[in-house]
Amino acid sequence: VAGAFGAGIMSGAFFGMGPIFGRALELSVFHISLLMGSAVLGGLVLQYPAGWLSDRFDRRTVLSFVLLVALLVCAGAYAWSVLGGGGLTPLLILIALYGGAATTIYPISVSHAFDFVARERMIEASSGLLLAWSLGATIGPLAASAAMGRLGAASLFLVLGLVAALLGLFTRYRMSRRAGKPPEEQAKFVPLPAAGAASQQLDPRTQADAEIVDRDGNQDL
């Protein structure tokens, strides 16, 4: 739940306020499109290696590494914004890495949850995680806009980095409180669209196991 909530904040804040950040830097519409598109491309490319690793190791270890990457990228993007950068290419690379890291948080969190959830409760669990993501996605742009209004456009990455740091610390705490499942007992990682968890239906793993009740009250698997 914490992972889904944090992923919602990071996704909502960036995709909601990213264009405002680009406009504050006086980027053209085309360059702002490149900025946002690089995050989507990074999310598309990097989910698969992260998912492959999370199916073979403790998912929280992989999630901790992903959050560390997100934190370092946010620090780099903030430094680029404050110091004037030196060309747009470094920022596009950083944003692509951020998109890959941030987009991976939600599916890894869902996969970790499903390692412990009974099949008959997968729809209920998935809807709850999606609700947590949605709450985060609502809070994210509000928090980021408040920070940007007071501290400048670059503070967008301070907010994103802070969320990544807090979620990383919480992940390490949970690892000290509960052992992960062996890789052979883990549910399979399912990648999600880079635009966010709300852009598709509930996690596709739930569809194969859901009971469909017809109008006559009959049940089919």
What does this entry show, briefly?
The protein is built from six helices and two strands; from the N terminus they run H-H-H-H-H-H-E-E. It is mostly helical. Helix 1 packs antiparallel against helix 6.
Name the poorly predicted regions. Answer: 194-202, 206-221
Class computed from helices, strands and strand pairing: mainly alpha
Strands ordered across the widest β-sheet: 1-2
Estimate the mean pLDDT confidence: 82
Can you write the helix and strand succession as a string? HHHHHHEE
User: Percent helix among the residues?
Assistant: 55-70%
Total helical elements: 6
The best one-word shape is elongated
For the sheet with most strands, the description reads: 2 strands, antiparallel
Strand content: under 5%
